[in-house]
Write a structure and sequence with these properties.
The chain is built from five helices and 13 strands. The chain has a single domain (4-120, 158-220), classed as Spore Coat Polysaccharide Biosynthesis Protein SpsA, Chain A (Alpha-Beta Complex). The strands form four sheets. A seven-stranded mixed sheet has the order 5-4-1-6-11-8-12, sandwiched between helices. A two-stranded antiparallel sheet has the order 2-3. Helix content is 22%, strand content 30%. By secondary structure, it is an alpha/beta fold.
Length: 221
């Protein structure tokens, strides 16, 4: 099977300003790697032969900028996640492809998700962690305290496999696919989910970025 991927990397990291004005894909997450370079390396290590960066800018700063395996789907105007993915899919040769957010870091073999996309689409599911301490009370007396427990719900990890045919039919030319297209895909019973229980790192705030840097520094030592 030919493995190809689209990385959605048009984020401007507005929630990280004014601490940093660097576009999100170029944020440094370890001593020697940016966010976009980590995701490209991760896909290459798992045998992906075509990686498309969907963005409104190119990335000459990337270590993989001149790689024959990596190319950019460049938007002239912002198309939203749905429009960007639909445009990038025209550079995909395989019948189905992996799609992911540049700021969602996970640790598994991405080829595994292909086995769940036999109906046209698959999504990686994770259990989020509560950002606060969970309190259980009885008659106003605290009976249990849990520090940032993992919640008993499943959410999107920002990693998918789609068939090109499904993207062409369901995704908007402009706008986000998460809003209407995904619900229509679910209603038509094309989407299957894989539950993932490993580490999930995502970058939304400066606090997230600091934790991710600490995570990779710990792995190095």
């Amino acid at each position: 099977m030919r493995y190809e991927a689209v990385i959605l990397c048009g984020g401007e990291a507005w929630r990280l300003k004014p601490a940093t004005h660097i576009p999100k894909p170029l944020l440094t997450i370890s001593a020697d790697e940016t966010l976009v370079d980590r995701q490209i390396r991760w896909l290459l290590e798992h045998g992906f032969s075509n990686i498309v960066l969907a963005s409104n800018r190119s990335f000459p700063e990337s270590a993989y900028f001149n790689s024959p395996v990596v190319q950019t789907s460049l938007e002239k105007k912002k198309l939203g996640t749905g429009g960007a993915l639909k445009m990038a899919a025209t550079l995909i040769k395989a019948d189905q492809f992996y799609a992911m957010n540049v700021d969602d870091i996970i640790f598994y073999d991405p080829r595994t998700l292909y086995d769940y996309a036999d109906k046209g689409a698959a999504i990686l599911l994770v259990q989020p962690r509560l950002l606060f301490g969970k309190i259980t009370t009885r008659k106003n007396v605290v009976t249990k305290f849990e520090d940032r427990p993992i919640l008993d719900i499943w959410v999107s990890a920002g990693h998918y496999v789609f068939s090109k045919k499904l993207v062409e039919e369901y995704f908007p030319d402009e706008g986000d696919f998460e809003r209407k297209a995904m619900q229509k895909i679910v209603s038509d019973k094309f989407l299957k989910g894989l539950k993932y229980r490993g580490d999930w790192l995502t970058v939304n705030t400066m606090k997230d970025l600091i934790k991710i840097r600490e995570y990779f520094e710990t792995k190095r030592t």
